[in-house]
Amino acid sequence: MLPSLRRLQATPAYTQLLALIKGDLKKAMIAKNNLEKNTIRLVLSTVKNSEIDGAKQTEFELARSLNKMIKQRIDSSHAFKTQGRDDLALAEEEEADIIRKYVIALPVASEEGILNKLKILLEELKQKDGSTKIGSVFKEITEEVATNWGSSSAVIKAMVPGLYKEVFGQKK
């Protein structure tokens, strides 16, 4: 499917954030703020590459991509600090702050919030039936539940095994 047709399948939050990012790019260009302009261009490039690769165009996938970019900048900042290059470390931290602003603008729950909700769900399932299998837990996590929690089902399902073991006290 062509990227332009896939854009029609984007969620409203995804589309709104892209509009915000493009507006901020214009402002940065007018203000001649090179750091912000270049960072925003990197964000837009990452988004475009993920669209070309066929990634789902949801706020959850966008948050995942932006968080990955933030983590890369933080890691680079630490590496520069250990090498005594505080000027480069500061630039990386500023880029991370610019990208973080867009993650915060997304209607996506934090990892801690999702973990808390998942733990509550698992404890409720344990109270109903202490021998609930992990497969039954996966069936409980539908797209509707994920949307209500402000996440995607894939993110929640990735957290299930660790919490299942903690709540039920067994592997599977």
Automatic annotation (TrEMBL):
Compartments, record wording: Mitochondrion
UniProt cross-references to InterPro entries, sorted A to Z: Asn/Gln_tRNA_amidoTrase-B-like (IPR003789), YqeY/Aim41 (IPR019004), YqeY/Aim41_N (IPR042184)
Entries under Pfam families matching the protein: YqeY (PF09424)
A GO CC annotation given for this chain: mitochondrion
Origin superkingdom: Eukaryota
MF (Gene Ontology): carbon-nitrogen ligase activity, with glutamine as amido-N-donor
Keyword terms, alphabetized: Mitochondrion
Residues in coiled coil: none
Assigned protein family: Belongs to the AIM41 family.
Designated name of the protein: Altered inheritance of mitochondria protein 41
